[in-house]
């Protein structure tokens, strides 16, 4: 059994070698159509005299793909309606547009940059989402709240909660001059 398998492998190998030798063109014969001729060992092909081999230019990049919707709907649009959450911190940001003062800025969009003392009262410098700094006093209104008090550490704001699922209508928010993330740096 083993010898018959070895005999079959040896004969297949010899047959493949014999067919490779017969398909190679003899000296002086033209190669078969579609076959490439390998250079003879020991010789190198030099370019013709006066001819220089110019590097081939790189292929141009493929054109950018653009989606043409036509009358079809956008395939990436979310088909589900937005979920309502009971989280009072999940409020939208201050809309882009003209901000005339602190009354147009939401509580979540302000950052306390400084606290000033004028006599016995404190003033706070807050940074809005538009990059401008505003000076606020105790009792000033924001878009969704009122400044309750200003301390040397920051300010306390009463934020109005506009959520029908919440049992509270207001909450107290503390905006500190130095937040914990800044102290870690």
Detail the topology: elements first, then pairings.
Blueprint (H helix, E strand, L loop, with lengths): L1 H22 L87 E8 L2 E7 L5 E4 L4 E2 L2 E7 L2 E7 L9 E7 L3 H4 L2
Antiparallel strand pairs: 1-2, 2-3, 4-5, 5-6, 6-7
Describe this structure in words.
This protein is α+β, with helices and mostly antiparallel strands and about 180 residues long. The protein has a domain at about 100-180: SH3 type barrels. The protein is built from 2 helices and 7 strands, in the order αβββββββα. The protein has helices spanning about 1-25, 180-185, and strands at about 110-120, 120-125, 135, 140, 145-150, 155-160, 170-175. It has a 4-stranded antiparallel β-sheet with strand order 4-5-6-7, with no helix packed on it. It has a 3-stranded antiparallel β-sheet with strand order 1-2-3, with no helix packed on it. The protein is elongated, with a radius of gyration of 41 Å.
Q: Could you say what the CATH topology of the domain at 102-179 is called?
A: SH3 type barrels
State the strand order across the main sheet. Answer: 4-5-6-7
- Termini separation comes to 79 Å
Distinct helical segment count = 2
Low-pLDDT runs of 5+ residues are none
Shape: elongated
| Portion in beta strands | 15-25%
Q: Percent helix among the residues?
A: 10-25%
Structure at a glance:
The chain has 185 residues and is an alpha+beta fold. Helices cover 14% and strands 23% of the residues. It has a domain at 102-179: SH3 type barrels.
List its salient traits:
single chain; 185 residues; three-stranded antiparallel beta sheet; elongated; alpha+beta; four-stranded antiparallel beta sheet; 14% helix; 7 strands; 2 helices; SH3 type barrels
């Amino acid at each position: 059994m083993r010898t018959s398998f070895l005999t079959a492998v040896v004969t297949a190998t010899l047959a493949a070698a014999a067919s490779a030798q017969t398909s190679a063109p003899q000296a002086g014969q033209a190669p078969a159509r579609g076959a490439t001729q390998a250079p003879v060992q020991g010789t190198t092909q030099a370019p013709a005299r006066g001819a220089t081999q110019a590097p081939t230019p790189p292929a141009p990049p493929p054109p950018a793909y653009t989606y043409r919707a036509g009358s079809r709907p956008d395939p990436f649009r979310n088909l589900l309606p937005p979920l309502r959450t009971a989280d009072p911190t999940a409020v939208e940001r201050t809309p882009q547009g003209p901000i005339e003062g602190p009354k147009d800025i939401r509580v979540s969009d302000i950052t306390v940059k400084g606290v000033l003392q004028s006599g016995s009262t404190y003033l706070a410098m807050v940074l809005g989402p538009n990059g401008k700094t505003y000076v606020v006093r105790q009792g000033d209104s924001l878009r969704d709240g009122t400044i309750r008090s200003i301390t040397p550490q920051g300010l306390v704001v009463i934020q109005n909660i506009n959520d029908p699922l919440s049992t509270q209508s207001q909450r107290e928010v503390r905006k500190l001059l130095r937040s914990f993330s800044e102290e870690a740096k």
